[in-house]
Amino acid sequence: MKNSRSEHAFYYVLPMKFVTVVTTVVLVLFVRTTGALRPQGVIPISQPTPTPTPFDTSGFVPVTEPPSTDTPTPTTTPTPTPTPKKTKKPASSGGTVVKTYSPTPTPTTTPTPKPSPSPTPHYTYRDGTYSADGTFDTPAGIETIGITLVISKDKVVDTSAVDKASNPTSQSYTNDFINNFRSYVIGKSLSSLSLGKISSASLTPNGFNNAAASIRSQAK
Question: For residues 145 and 175, is the Cβ–Cβ distance under 8 A?
């Protein structure tokens, strides 16, 4: 009976000791980890950092790699081959005749400048043949002379006169005028045509001037 109790006590105490040991280990690990149970004012003792022992390399011989004996391959740039030009072989050589053609240049035509039209001149009088009678005073009375003028570009190119006087003295002076007046009229401008004494006639030119004034009115 005593042995039975001792055996039961042994089986009861053994698990309790195991639990106590496990609990103690857990508490020690917790204290070391968190420092929760470290007393106030206690300075933790720092563990010295171990100094690494230098490695003795006196007995080692350094190994060097031998230099490379590979020769670099040179890079060559290909030279472009020129394209042969086609040439014309002579017929006597018996070869094939190759003809080369050059483009025919297009001729450039320079336009001929057109001349600028000249401005059309403006004339005061119309071209044509005009006739009129002119009167003039004489001691014998009023006499008349017939005048004809050919007008071109405002100038007189031809002229003629007819004696229409009735008095013999007047006729003599009129004929003297008719024989000499043409050189004073041809080539003159109609607008400024006016005659003075011609040869011995001093009154007959008045009849010419009156006829010329009438012709200017007709030619406008």
Answer: no
Amino acid making up residue 34: T
Kindly calculate the radius of gyration of the chain based on its CA atoms and give it in whole angstroms: 76
Fold of 128-219: Sufe protein. Chain: A (3.90.1010)
Burial class (CB within 10 angstroms; exposed 0-12, middle 13-18, buried 19+) of 163: middle
Query: 171 — phi, psi (to 5°)?
Result: -60, -40
**Matching residue, tokens 């109609």:** 190
- Strand order of the β-sheet with 155-163 is 128-138, 141-152, 155-163
- Name residues whose C-beta falls within 8 Å of residue 202's C-beta, 6 or more positions apart in sequence: 173
| Number of continuous H segments (helices) and E segments (strands) in the chain | 3, 3
The answer to pTM > 0.70 is no
Q: Name which of 194, 158, 179, 183 is nearest 171 in CA terms.
A: 179
Residue 219: Cβ within 10 Å count: 19
d(CA 149, CA 195): 14
Residue type, 55: F
The amino acid at 148: T
Q: What is the pLDDT of residue 2?
A: 44
At residue 118, the pLDDT reads 77
Per-residue pLDDT tens for 66-123? Answer: 556 666 666 666 666 666 565 555 555 555 656 666 667 777 778 888 887 777 889 9
